[in-house]
User: What shape does this take?
Amino acid sequence: MYRYPVEVISDTYLSKVGGFSYELDRKEIGINAKALEVNTSIIPNETFATLRTFDDRRPYFFKNRFIVVPIEENMDCYEMTADGEVVLPDDMKDKMRVKVGEDVIVNTVESFRIDGDYRNVVKAILWRLESRIRRN
Assistant: This one.
């Protein structure tokens, strides 16, 4: 029914940029509400995501985080996401270096796997460092 977003691996989606809209805040990205429901496990207005293009080489933690919001039929930017494309805020037009129609990866892994609780991440890093120290 909707071509995008397509889940390529768990909680990571491929989509295209549908356009830029004044209706979105600086920290929001919008996707067709029905496409979110049908094609993803994303929870609108709760799930955080990072975006990257295929040639983006910045480390994950330096990427902008956005909250995913649903775009309804009554919104002006609905035609930009008629097939489930990602709509970005106007404020990010100069900062994101993406063009309309370009492929983007929508990564929601952190939102679902870490969910703001970094204790296990810190434990894993400390364990890895301690094991390296013991080996040396």
Remarks:
- Residues 45 and 69 are 5 Å apart (CA to CA).
